[in-house]
Design a protein that fits this description.
By secondary structure, the protein is mostly beta strands. It has one domain. It contains one helix and 19 strands. The strands form four sheets. Strands 4, 5, 6, 7, 11, 14 and 15 form a seven-stranded antiparallel beta sheet that branches. A six-stranded antiparallel beta sheet has the order 3-17-18-10-9-8, with no helix packed on it.
């Protein structure tokens, strides 16, 4: 019998701004640090299935295979039922792309002003309807705060769509953790489950224009589907 366990994962980085939108990320590289299965929502007694530093461009065609190779499901306790998953990521992402913010206004990732814990990436603004090709740039999961020359772009991580909990700056200041509820509990049987991962980055690059006519950019929510199958 095949058991399917689907986890819809979104990295929820929600801006509050009338001119903030999301577009496709042509490159979206994250560094996975740890993956754990949990018995409860608070994940106080997790079972580690992967630890290290696996960088994956989730916009790439082979991203699913690369992510699935991070860690192993062998040795899971027989009969144990898991209800949640916790993942630890580096807060520093590498993204590339262009976003149509409004009308002819485009924001593109460029080579200057990388994002940090306290600043969003300042990209290139094109107002002639033709975007500059984006380049690889570091976009950081910045601290929850107000950004822009007029504080018009607010980053907050409390309203989550898929994740049940997100902690920025934990377990170290350069990391973040997310806990997700599994769509159905998974009970370990005789066969080690296989991992299948797919990604969607069609709305994974966020951009907004502040009162000073600056393009501010950040990582938005890629949808990640993980299936465990016997």
């Amino acid at each position: 019998m095949i058991k399917f366990l689907y986890i819809l994962i979104s990295l929820i980085f929600i801006p509050v701004n009338a001119y903030a939108v999301a577009g496709a990320a042509d490159k979206y590289e994250v560094t996975m640090k740890k993956v754990e299965l949990c018995l409860t929502a608070d994940c106080t007694s997790p079972t580690e299935v992967a630890e290290g530093a696996q960088s994956v461009d989730i916009a790439g065609l082979t991203a699913g295979a690369e992510a699935a190779q991070f860690g192993t499901t062998s040795g899971l306790p027989m009969g144990t039922t898991y209800t949640h998953l916790r993942i630890t990521l580096n807060r520093s992402f590498t993204l590339e792309g262009e976003v149509n913010v409004s009308g002819k206004n485009w924001c593109s990732t460029d080579s200057s002003a990388a994002g940090t814990a306290t600043a969003l990436h300042t990209g290139t603004l094109d107002s002639d309807g033709t975007p500059t090709d984006g380049v690889d740039q570091t976009l950081y999961i910045s601290d929850a705060d107000q950004y822009g020359s007029d504080n018009s772009i607010q980053m907050q991580y409390e309203t989550l769509t898929y994740a049940q909990k997100m902690t920025v700056g934990s377990p170290t200041s350069s990391e973040l953790q997310l806990i997700y509820g599994l769509t159905s509990a998974y009970t370990v049987g005789l066969t080690n489950p296989k991992i299948k991962v797919t990604f969607d980055t069609s709305s994974a690059l966020g951009a907004g224009i502040d009162g000073g006519n600056n393009c501010l950019m950040w990582p938005e929510e890629p949808v990640v589907t993980i299936a465990l199958t016997d």
